[in-house]
Amino acid sequence: MSRGLVGVTSMIGSLCWFTAFTLQNVAYVKALGQIELLFSLLIGRFVFGETIGRREWQGLLILSFSILLLVLVT
């Protein structure tokens, strides 16, 4: 049952991505995808207690800057 649920939610997620690409500017959809990565990292830290290394924090800062730059330019 667990594998089936993962497959269904993955299919729904892909359908939502394709729908978003048809309804909105691709740059905004890609930026949203990058923000999802930030949230995943932060949830891992604060909810699950994972440690985030120095390189991961640096990557987080670079990613945040690139998202901000993308939104400001577009």
Notable features of this structure?
mainly alpha, single chain, 74 residues, 3 helices
In short:
This protein is mainly α. Helix content is 85%, strand content 0%.
Structure description:
The protein is an all-alpha fold. It has a domain at 25-74. Helix content is 85%, strand content 0%. The protein is built from three helices and no strands. It is flat. The protein starts with a helix and ends with a helix. The model has no long low-confidence stretch (mean pLDDT 84).
Which helices and strands appear, and what pairs or packs with what?
Elements: H1 2-23, H2 26-46, H3 54-73
Helix pairs in contact: 2-3
Number of helices: 3
Characterize the largest beta sheet: strand count, sense, and whether it forms a barrel.
Answer: none
Distance between the termini: 43 Å
Instruction: Supply the helix-strand structural class.
Output: mainly alpha
Tell me, what's the shape? flat
Helix proportion range: over 70%
Low-confidence stretches: none
The sequence of SSEs as H and E is HHH
Share of residues in strands: under 5%
**Quaternary:** single chain
> How many β-strand stretches?
0
What is the gyration radius calculated from CA atoms? 15 Å
The mean pLDDT is 84
